[in-house]
Specification:
136 residues; mainly alpha; 0% strand; elongated
Amino acid sequence: MNRTPKTNPPPDSTAALLALCREILACQEGLSARAAQVRPHLEGGADADRVKPDLGTQAEGAARLQDLVRRLGETLREARIPPGRRDEVRRALDDLKARLGRVAEEAMADHALISRRGVRIPGVGGRPYPRKPLRS
């Protein structure tokens, strides 16, 4: 008698996806809070050297956020979400997209403000390496 072996259903990825969404939101909230602390100093005309360490920390946090979002994309491609939990995941992802969209808008405004103040952070919003001198 030929019996096909019983296979276990694929594991539910919902908990891992939702945990990653929460981690991304926590990272985003930390970045937004730090940006809100630095922004008044820049708007008030603070010396660029005074805020540059804070901006470097922001750049590190932004890199971490990008890594988390990349991991979310990879996790989503491989995810096994039961039909009964798909709406829950969809709502979490929609909320995440909306919040990250607002953060992107804030980041563009902050970048413009930082640029007006003459602050350059290597690898962020511009060339990561010093320019080579022009040949005469």
